[in-house]
Amino acid sequence: MVYQGERRVRRRLSLCAVLVALATTLGLAGCHGAGHDVKLNDDLIRRTDKFFDVAHVTGSTFVAVGYEGRILRSEDNGNHWTEVERPTNFSLTQVAFVGDAGWAVGHQGTVVNTRDGGKTWAVQKSNTTKALFSVSFIDQNHGWACGDESAWLWTNNGGETWNAERMEVSQVGLSEETSLAVPDIIYYGVHFIDPQNGWMIGEYGNIRHTADGGKTWDSQHESLLDQLVAKGGNKDVMALGAFFRVRFTDPQNGIIVGAAGAIATTNDGGAKWQWVSREGDKQDVPPLHLYNVALPAKDGRAVVTGTNGIVLFSDNKGVDWTPAKIPGGVFSWINGLAFSPEGKGVLVGGKGLVLLSDDAGQTWREIPPEEKGTTAAKS
Questions:
Q1: For an engineered disulfide with 172, which of 88, 130, 219, 334 has Cβ 3.0 to 4.6 Å away?
Q2: How many Cα atoms occupy the beta-carbon half-sphere of 290 within 13 Å?
Q3: 19-76 pLDDT, tens per residue?
Q4: What order of strands is seen across the sheet that includes strand 143-147?
């Protein structure tokens, strides 16, 4: 899995297209019915599968999404999975739930919605054809999404109508010369903590923040640039790699992860971000792309995943990191990560990877072989 933010000729490649080596996605299909019985080891999860995200629904239910619109659903914390008949053939890049209501976004402006915990899905009209990489809802009405070419969306009625917008390019860290090379930004992640406060992050280290639900956006990456200048660097966004995911526990405390082992944290709502690691300058964080971060229901615990099977956890709010215990032979990229409030975790990635955790991300295991031979219950 590769993200490129440095060269315009390559940055036009959408996130999931890069993941699947520019594989062609298909057109939209209609809304379909519930799941069907499939064997986990034979038919459901294969080495050729690519899962881009997973979300906790309620209780012990999780939903995973991926390449060509595949949607899988588990009702026992990931031990058994059922395939849900897909509402689209476009790849789905991220999924989010509020109770039994959920939304997934993907290629060609795809947005799909469920109201029954992921058993059935319907396509929503997004009013854009731009690739969408992230979605965030704070209740069953108010949601935001973002993606390619500075595109972002918002809804206040659960997606019955989506409003497509274009984010103006931040001038922080842009010179007259570099501004010509940055006509727009790919935004890879969006996260809202309440109806007013949200963050959107993307390539060239861009961090945008709103305190009014998206009516206006400011820029928050200047403090990271200033820290580079203090080390002898230039105040130029071209020196910043892409950020891929952002998470906040409350309006003050947040964490961002990105390319080449980038991790940054804030304790003041992003007024100042502090580098934790970047390009291998911290021994416990290798210079590998970090694609996702989750904050399980434990004080100070954070878990990150990325390329080459990397899974790290921190118990002091992202200051120090420890490799999680994972099964041997896992070298695929890991893009999806989610936890229940009880600390049950599911991560997904390339080559049909699905791993489970019972301790909020400190150790991970494969689905038991004896469970793989069973069939999932009908939805």
A1: 219
A2: 31
A3: 333 333 223 223 333 343 333 444 688 888 999 999 999 999 999 999 999 999 999 9
A4: 132-137, 143-147, 151-155, 163-166
Joined together, the tokens standing for residue 208 give 């945008």
Please check the confidence at residue 78 and state whether its pLDDT lies above 70: yes
361 half-sphere exposure, CB direction, 13 A CA radius: 30
- Taking the C-alpha atoms of residue 122 and residue 115, their distance in angstroms, rounded to an integer, is 9
Those residues whose C-beta lies under 8 Å from the C-beta of residue 64, and which sit 6 or more positions away, are: 51, 53, 54, 71, 72, 73, 74, 81, 95, 336, 346, 348, 354
- For the residues of 326-360, what is the DSSP string, one character each? --TT--S-EEEEEE-TTS-EEEEESTT-EEEESST
Query: Which two three-digit tokens encode residue 85?
Result: 């008949």
Nearest-angstrom CA–CA distance, 305 and 358:
17
Structural domains for the chain: 8-372 (2.130.10.10)
Q: How confident is the model over 234-244, as pLDDT tens digits?
A: 898 988 999 99
